């Protein structure tokens, strides 16, 4: 049995060892509450000035400078470790290298929780610069009239007066919510761009070798063997190519269906036969040209759907191209009928991107190394 003396209790009721934290232990409500109740400078100030208010002031300065959302969010959370292990004054901290190691490890967990590990070093340099420059403006007001450091120019007007803990907590949470909503989208777009570059860098030989092995794995899957109708999207140049899949399907007497985008941003499917012609959509995807004579089929009417994507986790998380068409279309389709085919570079053990409730999970993922996930 673990020693309960090693555990901490947080404002939201979480209980864990702060030296063995994982992202699930981190809660923004705990951070906002704790930082709003902690005084800067170990309390040796003219009035109560919280770490939370300092963090808000830093974030507002980053906004005034026009910094990207991730940098602003990092400014808001740069002291978040203090919500879990109290800060030490610099002369003491310098004598405790183990403490700094623990603090840095904890900060990495917090960064992972809020996807700040994707922020470039040059952006972190801006965060620490604002932290230092804000301090130079705080000291003459909250501590002493004696010059300690040169006052840096700011573009914002920081709140350098006592404010209630509750007011700071609420403002911290409000600002976080606004920033994080935007930043999560930024992270997914960043991951899309990175993955596209990685896919474009693959050699034709490597692509083809992996595609052939994937086909062999797919042919042995019961979903494929049983399916009489198969839905698939015409891939773009960088994506996993499906020409071998199409050949296998036609050879096995399967009927192929391809999607058409609808005004409500869902997909319906039409049969792909010798009369089918295609046009390129605004997303760059080839889509069949249809008229009122073409029968339209919902996704749930098909036996198997091969879902495209850019990036997957082994837990079934997926990043698509950002339109959300498959997320909406597959909500009512049985997991058994959904498969994604991917190059090995497209699959990662854990999603290091935001996963929303509206994002579909892929129950079965196949790469050249085999079936990565099969539920």
Structural notes for this entry:
There is one protein chain. This protein is an alpha/beta fold and 375 residues long. It contains 11 helices and 14 strands. It folds into 2 domains: 194 residues, Hypothetical protein af1432 (Orthogonal Bundle); 173 residues, NagB/RpiA/CoA transferase-like (Rossmann fold), CATH 3.40.50. It has a 7-stranded mixed sheet with strand order 5-4-3-8-11-13-14. Strand 3, helix 10 and strand 4 form a beta-alpha-beta unit. The longest helix has 36 residues. The chain is elongated, with a radius of gyration of 27 Å. The model has no long low-confidence stretch (mean pLDDT 93).
- Report strand %: 5-15%
Number of domain units = 2
> What is the CATH top level name of the largest domain?
Mainly Alpha
Terminal Cα separation, in Å?
A: 34 Å
Label the CATH architecture of the largest domain. Orthogonal Bundle
What's the overall geometry?
A: elongated
Biggest β-sheet strands, sense, barrel:
7 strands, mixed
Structural class: alpha/beta
Radius of gyration: 27 Å
Helix content: 25-40%
Which regions contain 5 or more consecutive residues with pLDDT less than 50?
A: none
């Amino acid at each position: 049995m673990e020693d309960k003396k090693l555990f901490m209790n947080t404002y939201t009721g979480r209980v864990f060892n702060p030296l063995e934290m994982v992202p699930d232990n981190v809660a923004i409500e705990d951070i906002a509450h704790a930082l709003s109740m902690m005084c800067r400078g170990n309390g040796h100030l003219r009035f109560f000035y919280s770490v939370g208010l300092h963090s808000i002031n830093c974030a507002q300065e980053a906004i005034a400078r026009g910094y990207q959302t991730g940098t602003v969010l990092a400014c808001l959370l740069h002291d978040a470790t203090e919500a879990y292990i109290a800060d030490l004054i610099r002369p003491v901290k310098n004598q405790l290298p183990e403490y700094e190691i623990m603090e840095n490890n904890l900060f990495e967990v917090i960064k992972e929780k809020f996807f700040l590990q994707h922020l470039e070093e040059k952006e972190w340099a801006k965060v620490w610069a604002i932290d230092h420059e804000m301090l130079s403006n705080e000291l003459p007001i909250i501590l002493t009239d004696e010059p300690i450091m040169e006052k840096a120019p700011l573009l914002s007007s920081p709140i350098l007066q006592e404010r209630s803990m509750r007011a700071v907590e609420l403002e911290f949470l409000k600002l976080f919510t606004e920033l994080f909503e935007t930043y999560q989208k930024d992270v997914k777009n960043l991951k899309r761009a990175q993955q596209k570059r990685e896919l474009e860098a693959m050699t034709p030989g490597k692509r083809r070798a992996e595609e052939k092995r994937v086909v062999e794995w797919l042919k042995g899957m019961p979903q494929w063997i049983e399916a009489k109708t198969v839905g698939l999207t015409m891939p773009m140049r960088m994506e996993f190519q499906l020409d071998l899949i199409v050949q296998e399907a036609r050879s096995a007497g399967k009927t192929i269906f391809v999607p058409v985008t609808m005004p409500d941003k869902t997909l319906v499917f039409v049969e792909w036969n010798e009369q089918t012609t295609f046009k390129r959509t605004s997303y760059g995807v080839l889509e069949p040209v249809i008229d009122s004579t073409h029968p339209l089929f919902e996704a749930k009417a098909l036996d198997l759907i091969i879902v495209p994507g850019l990036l997957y986790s082994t837990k079934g998380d997926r990043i698509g191209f950002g339109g959300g068409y498959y997320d909406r279309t597959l909500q009512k389709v049985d997991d058994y009928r959904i498969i994604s085919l991917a190059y090995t570079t497209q699959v990662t053990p854990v999603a290091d991107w935001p996963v929303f409730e509206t994002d579909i999970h892929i129950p079965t993922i196949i790469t050249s190394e085999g079936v990565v996930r099969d539920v």
